[in-house]
Amino acid sequence: MKNIYTFAAQPAKRTLTIAEMRKAKGQNKLTQVTANTIQEVIAVAEAGIDMMVCDAANIEQVRSANNTTFCTAAIKMTEFATTDDILREAFRALHQGADAVITPRSFHVVETLAREGIPVMGHLGLVPRKSIWMGGMRAVGKTAIEATELYKDFKRLEDAGAFAVEAEVIAGEIMTEISSRTNLITSSLGSGAGADVIFLFMNDLCGETESAPRHARRFGNLNILHEQLYKARVEALNAFKDAAQNGSFPSDKETPKINTEQLDLFRENLAKL
Fold first, then answer.
1. Separation between Cα atoms, residue 89 and residue 247, nearest integer Å
2. How far apart are CA 53 and CA 70, in angstroms?
3. Using CB atoms within 10 A of its CB, is residue 216 exposed (0-12), middle (13-18) or buried (19+)?
4. CA-angle at 162, arms to 27 and 159, nearest 5°
5. Residue 16: beta bridge partners?
6. Cβ neighbours of residue 223 under 8 Å, at least 6 residues apart?
């Protein structure tokens, strides 16, 4: 654990700092997952995952349950339109305990945040919200021309002042080549093992949906448990409805009582009204 001060000037401890990430670059693989609920962030701490990403709107809840794991707050692209909006939201998230922010916005936006000393993670490769420009959801960097342009974007992001980048669905060999040629901490989401950080979404790795993206692996099968919980919930609701309708609930055991003398006095009072 490292002793730090948060952006809100509060003493805290972190299992990982940016300085340590940079020291680990090219040496040790780090892990990163999304985490937005109290149960998820507690599990992240218990499992010793290095870093987590949450929606900026959830940072206060996340930090209430896990105040040690390095946390990057994702600022939603369409909810904060202007540079001032993004800057204000970034500082709000940092004040609530985030260690960094991630944005898929322009290099100009990244530079504006970085100039204020905000640790910024960019987003390159397949950016789903921008997939309309790319011909849909597809891997990036599978031609020499596209890979070269992608490398230039990594260097532009580096020059803008970002400390890290989410590298999504980039050809694995290209990711390896680029990662060794940039000072950015590269976080691979579906871009192979050549990056500095291996990143997966919580719901994908835990198997919480019927299927996962091609780049993800289901390390669990929580979908079965969710289905079992749903069926058990419906059964309990049906049993409650039946009991309420047939008069078996609430029973005498589940109903508070008044002694007979007080009940008689109440009835006498009612008769006088």
1. 54
2. 9
3. middle
4. 100
5. none
6. 207, 208, 209, 210
Is residue 168 part of the annotated active site? The answer reads: yes
* Pairing verdict, β 2-5 and 11-14: antiparallel
pLDDT (tens digit per residue) in 174-226: 999 999 999 999 999 999 999 999 999 999 999 998 888 889 999 999 999 99
* Contact between residue 116 and residue 87 where contact means Cβ atoms under 8 Å apart: yes
Tokens for 257, please give them. Answer: 């009582």
Catalytic residue among 60, 168, 227, 261: 168
Q: Residue 112: CB partners within 8 Å, gap ≥ 6?
A: 83, 86, 87
- Residue 169, C-beta contacts closer than 8 angstroms, at least 6 positions apart: 125, 126, 138, 139, 140, 189, 190, 191, 215
Q: Is 18 exposed, middle or buried (0-12, 13-18, 19+ CB in 10 A)?
A: middle
Two structure tokens written together for 65: 């349950």
